[in-house]
């Protein structure tokens, strides 16, 4: 009988978020699960790491009904992956899954997302990694329709491996199981956030801002994650951490430098 | 006579760091300068944004000897760019420069770097943007040899524009002016951090960790930023924020999903 894969589970919504609890349950059906996740919400932390502060990591007693090992970490999602692989896990995991995020990480959101940055960090260590997100920000979001999709993509990743330097960004539309039309491999849509700052004055008379924004997608392509999600498909975008714009090198070599 | 370009200056080491002071001085030679930078060090913040907290932004009176307008911001480098463009500047700037960072942002460091994330954020808004870093972590680093390089690359960027969806990651070796051999357009080296956590116990008996690490470059290419820097060249890497691994889409379409 084959050895069960070792799976690292993390997220950015914090270790008690419903999304990660669903992900843990699905991963328990596949392999031996270690959870190392933030002790508090870390949404929008991108690829931040803690370099000027101590990081705490506590083992959580989970009871005999829960097969997974759990650790909560005071750091960012990327800190969690670094700590997990270097200090908590007995060996390099066979898979790292992050999420299930409460809310979309499609298109440009990938660069702000702690969920995806955790997956990318695992990718830099040569670990097959996937970030999962459900297009529902609510704490009460229904993660049940995501279960089958998450399991299928995780199993295929374990079976096939991932191309070198690539991790997966999976977004799941807010639909019931019968409403989801399938899974599409996509490119990241060219979209951006149009910020709208909400300016207020605090009780001491000092102005401050809340960051809000409107998502603008001007990409008309039918091969993008935004298009797939709008059509009711799960989007899978292969994401790389070689950020070199190789196509631009020639043009820059024409500059007078 | 042509209108002087409007230039946004930011960084991640904080508004009082010597690196940004040098950058401001150089930009004053080129255009009309607005500085919106963090009020405290924000190294390693990656593309983090502040979504669950208020952000303060204070105008700093600089005196008549300093032509630039300055604002310190309580948020991350990416927050600074968002606030600057949407609330502080009278129009979209012609250029955004970030740095000069105290320390390297070559190869994989680009994904952790607040300096580069600020430039990337400006890029998502369609603003030509450049992150500058000097390979010297010291507060007393000598930024003088960087002046000519920074000015030259900024002027070329204003003149030529940048390809769509591309920003520049410029790293400068720690050499005097006569030691710098020139400027090379490069790709990001395939390198990674091998973490070494320093485990300690606090006075209350709780274990904690300090993140440390060793930089490992296994990329033997002579077209990488690491190679160029080792040879005494300034490296210029075109960086994109479309993270899609386009080359991997075909392979994933072969999966049984």
TrEMBL record, chains A, B:
The gene is surE. This is 5'-nucleotidase SurE. Residues 7-195 form the Survival protein SurE-like phosphatase/nucleotidase domain. GO terms for molecular function: 5'-nucleotidase activity; metal ion binding; nucleotide binding. Nucleotidase that shows phosphatase activity on nucleoside 5'-monophosphates. It catalyses: a ribonucleoside 5'-phosphate + H2O = a ribonucleoside + phosphate. GO terms for cellular component: cytoplasm. It is an enzyme of class 3 (hydrolase). Belongs to the SurE nucleotidase family. Its EC number is 3.1.3.5. The keyword Nucleotide-binding applies. Its cofactor is a divalent metal cation; Mg(2+). PANTHER family: 5'-NUCLEOTIDASE SURE, PHOSPHATASE, PUTATIVE (AFU_ORTHOLOGUE AFUA_4G01070)-RELATED. A divalent metal cation binds at residues 12-13, 43, 101. Keywords: Cytoplasm, Hydrolase, Metal-binding, Nucleotide-binding. SUPFAM superfamilies: SurE-like.
